Amino acid sequence: MAAVQTMAPADVPQRNVHADDILQFTPKTYGDWRDDFHKYGCTVVKGVITPERAAYYREKQIEWLKKFDLGFDENDKSTWTAEHLPYSFKGGMYFLYGLTHENFIWEARCEPGVIDVFAKLWEDEELIVAFDGMNISFPQRADVKWSPWPHCDQAPKRKGMQSVQGLLNFAPNGPKDGGLMLMKGASNLFDEFFATKRQSFAHEDAPPADMEFEDHFLFCE
C-alpha cells in the first residue's frame, strides 16, 4: 500500500539559487540521503511518517475501497478480485474517482515529513505538487494479467532534474514482496539518451496517442 506524488519548486526563476544550478545540480556533498539520490537517481528515506500514521492510512485505503459497495472484504481473499474492487491499473494502482482529493490523500500530501524531504531536495519551501494516485495491491491475485512497463515520468524534452516522484510507503514490505522497480543510475543517462530522437514503446498499457502524455515515455529495451 502506498501513495505516489510528484513535487517541484513552485517558481524556479525566483529562487535564491540560480535556476541552472537547481536543475543540473552542481556536485556537492550534503552528508545525508541526498548524496545517494543525486548519485543514483533514487533513494529510500526512512521514518518520514510514524508507524501509527502508516496504519492510519492503510485503514483509510481499505475504507475507501469499501465505499464502492462491491462486496470487497479485506479478510476474505475471494473478494480480492476485479468484480469486487473499483477499476484500477495493473490490479492496484488507482487514479480515478476523484481519489487525489480525498481528505486522507491531502493528509498524506501534507505530512510534515513528506514536505520536508522535498523542501530539502529543492532547497525551497514553496512547492507545487501533482498527486498521481495510490497503490493497493493484494497478494496472489490470480485475476490480474501483469507485464512490466519500464518508463520515465519526465518528458524527454525537459533537461536536467525538473520533477521528482516520491512513493510514501504505508506497509512493512520486505525483499520478497513485489512492487516498484527502479533503474538505479539511469537518471545520469537521461539527457544523453534523449539527445537522439526516440520513439516511445507501443506497450499494451501505453496511453492512447491522442492523450499526448508528454511526461510519460515507455522504453522498449
How do the strands and helices of this protein lay out in sequence?
Elements: E1 2-9, H1 19-24, H2 33-40, H3 51-66, E2 93-94, H4 103-109, H5 112-122, E3 127-135, E4 151-152, E5 164-169, H6 190-193, E6 217-218
Antiparallel strand pairs: 1-3, 1-5, 2-3, 4-6
If you had to describe this structure to a student in words, what would you say it looks like?
- The protein is 24% helix and 13% strand.
- The protein has 221 residues and is of the alpha+beta class.
- About 5% of the residues have low confidence.
- The longest helix has 16 residues.
- The chain is built from six helices and six strands.
- A four-stranded antiparallel β-sheet has the order 2-3-1-5.
- The chain has one domain.
- The radius of gyration is 19 Å and the shape is globular.
Summarize the structure.
The chain has one domain.
Q: What attributes does this structure have?
A:
13% strand, 221 residues, 4-stranded antiparallel β-sheet, two-stranded antiparallel ribbon, alpha+beta, 24% helix
